[in-house]
Specification:
The protein is an all-beta fold. The chain is 0% helix and 55% strand. The strands form 2 sheets. Strands 2, 4, 5, 6, 9, 10 and 11 form a 7-stranded mixed sheet that branches.
């Protein structure tokens, strides 16, 4: 069965960095677009970034452009999100999501990112 397991979240001070990982299994990872979606406390879901199957094309939300980078290692079936210059407003539960025809069909359990001094 499809499994997406995020890791790498935690508590970081403003200006700090974290790298999130998502280990995928149960499907041919290299055939799918993958995304990161976040949800801040009391707010709705926000798409953050996506990457095409071979990793050659990415897109990212304006609020994190220049600070976050999405990448993937298809040999390791792993998706990444490098987050630099973190701000308090980046605090959220970050989900790894598989995309099919523009829709999200499988979600991980999420990893919590807290940005606080």
């Amino acid at each position: 069965q499809v499994q997406l397991v995020e890791s790498g979240g935690g508590l970081v001070q403003p200006g700090g960095s974290l790298r999130l990982s998502c280990a995928a299994s149960g499907f041919t990872f290299s055939s799918y677009y993958m995304s990161w979606v976040r949800q801040a406390p009391g707010k709705g879901l926000e798409w953050v970034s996506h990457i095409n199957p071979d990793g050659g094309r990415t897109a990212i939300v304006d609020s994190v452009k220049g600070r976050f980078t999405i990448s993937r290692d298809n040999a390791k079936n792993t998706l990444y999100l490098q987050m630099n210059s973190l701000k308090p407003e980046d605090a959220a539960l970050y989900y790894c999501v598989r995309s099919v025809s523009g829709s999200f069909d499988y979600w991980g359990q999420g990893t919590q990112v807290t940005v606080s001094s």
